[in-house]
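Q: Entry one of two.
A:
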Amino acid sequence: MNNKTNAPKTVMVLFAASVAALPLASHGAKLGESNISVFLGQKQLDDNDWEAVDSQTEWGFIADLGRKDSVVNLVVSYLASEDESSRSGTDFTGETWELGMGVRKPFRITPDIAPYVEVGVAYMDATLEQRPAATGTTSDSAFGVWAGGGVTFAVGERLTAGVNLRYTSGSATLLGEDREVGGLHFGVTAGIGF
């Protein structure tokens, strides 16, 4: 089965389900100062650098930690992505993971809805394999930067849901070429607020 065909459909179903669930949010629910969430979505890498595996399924964890008097929250994230594909008799496998740290500025428009912007730095690791084998190292790591935004909704006493969009950038050497290992990340989150 080709992950490239099914991954965007999965993200669209998850996004539609989260939007459809918004009216079900408890009107008495309030967002806490901090939140720990799971992330499920898609990472879109540079198609010139990642060939047949540029659209990868992604999962991870995002935590934003703050206090009532905080101007910004600390954000820590771990995001991992992967895809496999075949093209013209060549098999491709691509994987990345990113460990990010930064700050998030929430804008509480109501007690249960908080859009936000965020920015930070990341340590990135990437693997690109091509079979029959291509020359060069298949794995490398890099430091990079990221920026993004999203919105978090309170859907229960401590339960949260949301959408997250971010762009990361960093360069690593894979199969003898410098390649962009960051990309556009978009997906849905579900978590616990406190």
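Q: Entry two of two.
A:
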Amino acid sequence: MKKLIVSLCIIGLMSTYAFAQPQSGIKIGTNTSFVNNTNEFDYKPQLGLGISYQHAFSFTDSWHLTLGAGYNMYSTSATSKTDNYGNIPSHQSQTAEYLSVPIAINYTFNKFYLRAGYQYGYKIDVSLFVDEGVLQSNPHDHSALIGIGYNLGFVNLELEYTSSLNQSRKGNGYSYYDGGSTNMVYSPGTRKLNVLQASVSIPLGKKRK
């Protein structure tokens, strides 16, 4: 009887591990971007959007690799501290849109899985969903990625945090005289992005056993 109970527990535990694995599918989520304040701007986070496809590769029952590709829109509210040299609004929403490729190692336990990896982002000039001010962030973003997920069976719930490895650059301005008037020119710097994203992952195809 004891052997039967132990066997059933082992089978149940193995089934739970298999059920908790990250699965290939579509991820849809919302994000919040945190940008450090500068001498020129105060930044406050706003909600953004993330849509991607994630493919999962199994190594063992506990270890998996996920590779993804998708679109991310990051948004902040920027308030100017300076006169902006006359060519930047004192307050506006600013967005940055990226094509992103994350890769991560996942470790599963029960119905949870932990994730750590790297994400590359390529900034795109075309505004797909909004037409606001442009957040001056790095055109090629390299970020460290950590996250946690929970498998509900029909969907996965995921919470991820990415922190840019790029360095921020300060903006600068100067004036010049063209013979009739003094003109001001402002050159914006680039901002470092730290992003918290909550997503729902919808599995496609068969469940991974």
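A: Comment on entry two: Residues 1-19, 172-177 have pLDDT under 50 and may be disordered. Helices lie at 2-19.
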